[in-house]
Protein backbone atom coordinates (compact mmCIF):
# COMPACT_ATOMS: atom_id res chain seq x y z
CA UNK A 1 0.00 0.00 0.00
CA UNK A 2 1.49 3.23 -1.16
CA UNK A 3 -1.13 5.74 -0.06
CA UNK A 4 -3.72 5.25 2.68
CA UNK A 5 -6.12 7.90 1.37
CA UNK A 6 -6.65 6.13 -1.96
CA UNK A 7 -9.19 3.86 -0.27
CA UNK A 8 -11.19 6.71 1.28
CA UNK A 9 -13.42 7.88 -1.54
CA UNK A 10 -14.85 10.61 0.66
CA UNK A 11 -11.60 12.25 1.74
CA UNK A 12 -12.49 15.45 -0.12
CA UNK A 13 -15.55 15.86 2.13
CA UNK A 14 -13.68 14.84 5.26
CA UNK A 15 -15.23 11.38 5.28
CA UNK A 16 -18.79 12.73 5.32
CA UNK A 17 -20.60 11.90 2.06
CA UNK A 18 -23.98 12.85 3.55
CA UNK A 19 -23.05 16.41 4.51
CA UNK A 20 -21.00 16.70 1.30
CA UNK A 21 -19.07 19.74 2.51
CA UNK A 22 -15.33 19.71 2.01
CA UNK A 23 -12.80 20.94 4.64
CA UNK A 24 -12.70 24.38 2.97
CA UNK A 25 -16.45 24.81 3.52
CA UNK A 26 -17.38 24.41 -0.13
CA UNK A 27 -20.60 22.48 -0.62
CA UNK A 28 -20.85 20.07 -3.50
CA UNK A 29 -23.83 19.88 -5.82
CA UNK A 30 -26.23 17.06 -5.17
CA UNK A 31 -27.53 15.12 -8.15
CA UNK A 32 -30.78 17.12 -8.12
CA UNK A 33 -28.98 20.47 -8.15
CA UNK A 34 -27.11 20.15 -11.43
CA UNK A 35 -27.67 23.44 -13.30
CA UNK A 36 -27.75 21.80 -16.74
CA UNK A 37 -30.68 19.52 -15.99
CA UNK A 38 -34.32 20.06 -15.22
CA UNK A 39 -35.40 18.19 -12.07
CA UNK A 40 -38.75 17.20 -13.60
CA UNK A 41 -37.80 15.23 -16.68
CA UNK A 42 -34.02 15.34 -16.99
CA UNK A 43 -34.03 17.56 -20.05
CA UNK A 44 -31.95 20.58 -20.90
CA UNK A 45 -32.97 23.52 -18.81
CA UNK A 46 -35.29 25.93 -20.58
CA UNK A 47 -37.26 28.95 -19.59
CA UNK A 48 -40.08 26.96 -18.07
CA UNK A 49 -43.42 26.25 -19.69
CA UNK A 50 -45.40 29.29 -20.77
CA UNK A 51 -49.10 29.43 -21.46
CA UNK A 52 -49.15 30.32 -25.16
CA UNK A 53 -47.23 29.62 -28.35
CA UNK A 54 -46.78 33.38 -28.84
CA UNK A 55 -44.96 33.72 -25.50
CA UNK A 56 -42.68 30.77 -26.30
CA UNK A 57 -42.08 32.11 -29.81
CA UNK A 58 -41.09 35.54 -28.48
CA UNK A 59 -38.65 34.02 -25.98
CA UNK A 60 -37.19 31.76 -28.69
CA UNK A 61 -36.81 34.66 -31.13
CA UNK A 62 -35.06 36.72 -28.46
CA UNK A 63 -32.57 33.85 -27.92
CA UNK A 64 -32.09 33.48 -31.69
CA UNK A 65 -31.66 37.20 -32.43
CA UNK A 66 -28.79 37.37 -29.94
CA UNK A 67 -27.07 34.80 -32.17
CA UNK A 68 -27.65 36.48 -35.52
CA UNK A 69 -30.84 34.74 -36.65
CA UNK A 70 -32.53 35.80 -39.88
CA UNK A 71 -35.53 33.88 -41.19
CA UNK A 72 -34.30 32.94 -44.66
CA UNK A 73 -35.49 29.39 -45.41
CA UNK A 74 -37.61 26.56 -44.06
CA UNK A 75 -36.55 23.93 -41.52
CA UNK A 76 -37.85 20.47 -42.40
CA UNK A 77 -38.85 17.68 -40.03
CA UNK A 78 -36.91 14.43 -39.99
CA UNK A 79 -39.24 11.97 -38.27
CA UNK A 80 -42.83 10.74 -38.21
CA UNK A 81 -45.60 12.89 -39.62
CA UNK A 82 -43.20 15.87 -39.94
CA UNK A 83 -40.68 14.07 -42.16
CA UNK A 84 -39.83 16.36 -45.10
CA UNK A 85 -42.47 18.87 -43.97
CA UNK A 86 -41.63 22.47 -42.96
CA UNK A 87 -41.74 22.88 -39.17
CA UNK A 88 -39.64 26.02 -38.62
CA UNK A 89 -37.21 28.53 -40.10
CA UNK A 90 -33.43 28.92 -40.33
CA UNK A 91 -30.67 31.01 -41.88
CA UNK A 92 -29.56 30.22 -45.46
CA UNK A 93 -26.48 28.39 -44.16
CA UNK A 94 -28.62 26.40 -41.68
CA UNK A 95 -26.43 27.38 -38.73
CA UNK A 96 -29.09 29.25 -36.74
CA UNK A 97 -32.75 28.32 -36.58
CA UNK A 98 -35.73 26.81 -34.83
CA UNK A 99 -38.30 24.07 -35.20
CA UNK A 100 -41.68 23.59 -33.56
CA UNK A 101 -42.41 20.09 -32.29
CA UNK A 102 -44.58 18.00 -30.02
CA UNK A 103 -43.38 14.79 -28.38
CA UNK A 104 -44.34 12.68 -25.40
CA UNK A 105 -41.28 13.70 -23.38
CA UNK A 106 -41.39 17.50 -23.77
CA UNK A 107 -44.89 18.18 -25.06
CA UNK A 108 -45.30 21.26 -27.26
CA UNK A 109 -42.00 23.11 -27.61
CA UNK A 110 -39.70 25.16 -29.81
CA UNK A 111 -36.15 23.86 -30.32
CA UNK A 112 -33.48 26.44 -31.13
CA UNK A 113 -29.87 26.11 -32.23
CA UNK A 114 -26.95 28.31 -33.24
CA UNK A 115 -24.06 26.39 -34.77
CA UNK A 116 -23.11 23.70 -32.30
CA UNK A 117 -24.89 25.50 -29.46
CA UNK A 118 -28.11 23.68 -28.68
CA UNK A 119 -30.49 26.07 -26.99
CA UNK A 120 -33.21 25.35 -24.45
CA UNK A 121 -36.63 23.95 -25.22
CA UNK A 122 -39.14 26.78 -25.13
CA UNK A 123 -42.18 24.85 -23.92
CA UNK A 124 -45.76 26.02 -24.25
CA UNK A 125 -49.16 24.66 -23.34
CA UNK A 126 -50.69 23.03 -26.44
CA UNK A 127 -51.90 19.67 -27.72
CA UNK A 128 -50.32 17.82 -30.63
CA UNK A 129 -53.29 18.89 -32.77
CA UNK A 130 -52.56 22.58 -32.08
CA UNK A 131 -48.85 22.07 -32.83
CA UNK A 132 -49.78 20.54 -36.20
CA UNK A 133 -51.86 23.64 -36.99
CA UNK A 134 -48.90 25.87 -36.12
CA UNK A 135 -46.58 23.75 -38.27
CA UNK A 136 -49.03 24.09 -41.18
CA UNK A 137 -48.41 27.85 -41.13
CA UNK A 138 -44.85 27.19 -42.32
CA UNK A 139 -46.13 25.36 -45.41
CA UNK A 140 -47.67 28.58 -46.66
CA UNK A 141 -44.54 30.72 -46.30
CA UNK A 142 -42.25 28.85 -48.70
Explain this structure to me?
- This protein is an alpha+beta fold.
- The chain folds into two domains: 33 residues, no CATH class; 89 residues, no CATH class.
- It is built from two helices and five strands.
- A five-stranded antiparallel sheet has the order 1-2-3-4-5.
- It is globular, with a radius of gyration of 21 Å.
- About 11% of the residues have low confidence.
Nearest-integer average pLDDT: 77
The secondary-structure class comes to alpha+beta
Total DSSP helices: 2
Report strand order across the widest sheet.
1-2-3-4-5
Mass-distribution shape: globular
Strand content: 15-25%
Report the count of strand segments.
5
Instruction: Supply the number of structural domains.
Output: 2
Helical fraction: 10-25%
Q: Write the H/E string, N to C.
A: HEEEEEH
Describe the sheet with the most strands.
5 strands, antiparallel
What distance separates the N and C termini?
71 Å
Protein name: Bacterial toxin 47 domain-containing protein
Organism: Brevibacillus laterosporus (Bacillus laterosporus)
